[in-house]
Amino acid sequence: MILQHPVPAEVSEAAAALYWQAFAGKLGFVMGPDAKGQAYVARVFDPSHGISAHASDGTMLGVAGFKTAKGAMVGGSFSDLRAIYGAIGALWRAAVLQALERDTENTRFLMDGVCVATHARGQGVGTALLDAICKEAKARGYAQVRLDVIDSNPRARALYERVGFVAFKTVSIGPLRHLFGFRSSTAMAKAL
Fold first, then answer.
1. Full-prediction pTM beyond 0.90?
2. Torsion over CA of 158, 159, 162 and 163, rounded to 10 degrees?
3. Terminal CA-to-CA distance of the chain, rounded, Å?
4. Percent of the chain with pLDDT over 90
5. Are 9 and 61 in contact (CB under 8 A)?
6. Contact between residue 165 and residue 116 where contact means Cβ atoms under 8 Å apart
7. Cis bond upstream, residue 6 (ω within 30)
8. Other CB atoms closer than 10 Å to residue 111's CB: what's the count?
9. Among 3, 5, 7, CA closest to 41
10. Element (H, E) at 11
11. Alpha helices in 62-151 (DSSP H)
């Protein structure tokens, strides 16, 4: 397994596609249909805010992103939404997505998504990506890494707990659960 930061140009498209596949269940109703959701992620994907895991033949194994004051692996602006969904589609999507927005903070490095290809699960890819995120955080002078996990993803939460993340706050998304398919998000942190 090869880990690289930033995500190399030759695997960026595959990394963006993997991200959409992993998060389509959570974002699909708002960011769908699939073709548009994937086009949006590909448009806004910022390799400088990601770490990729791939096999020596280039096969994408996984990707992890982080968010800083300078951007995110999958961020984007209203103009990006408008380019994919049109003006009206961008307006309501921007309003709904704002409810999920997480701000960066000065004390904890914010991991913003980790996903592992189906064929690579159970092979240590997720653990390796989390370790790489922690190393990136430490290199930037942070003492902790923060991430958020949704209640409908117990497998991810178990992984995070296994590698040392501890829950410190759970937030309900209220009626938006009908749009996103989960009820709450738990913030977790790991001391470095």
1. yes
2. -150
3. 23
4. 86
5. no
6. no
7. yes
8. 26
9. 7
10. helix 9-31
11. 78-98, 125-139
E-strand ranges in the chain read: 2-4, 50-54, 60-68, 71-72, 109-116, 144-150, 166-172, 184-191
Q: What's the CA gap between 179 and 27, in Å, rounded?
A: 8
pLDDT value at 46 more than 90: yes
**Which DSSP helix (H) or strand (E) runs through 24?**
helix 9-31
Strand, coil or helix: what is 74? Answer: strand
Give phi and psi for 140, each to the nearest 5. -90, 0
Task: Name the β-bridge partners of 116.
Answer: 62
Whole-angstrom distance, CA of residue 90 vs CA of residue 95: 9
Instruction: Determine contact, residues 83/164, Cβ cutoff 8 Å.
Output: no
pLDDT in tens, 99-152: 888 777 778 999 999 999 999 999 999 999 999 999 999 999 999 999 999 999
Judged on CB neighbours under 10 Å (0-12, 13-18, 19+), 164 is middle
90 touches 81 (CB < 8 A): yes
Sign of CA dihedral 132, 134, 138, 141: positive
Task: Please give the structure tokens belonging to residue 163.
Answer: 């590698």
Please state, in angstroms and rounded to a whole number, the distance separating the CA atoms of residues 181 and 150.
10
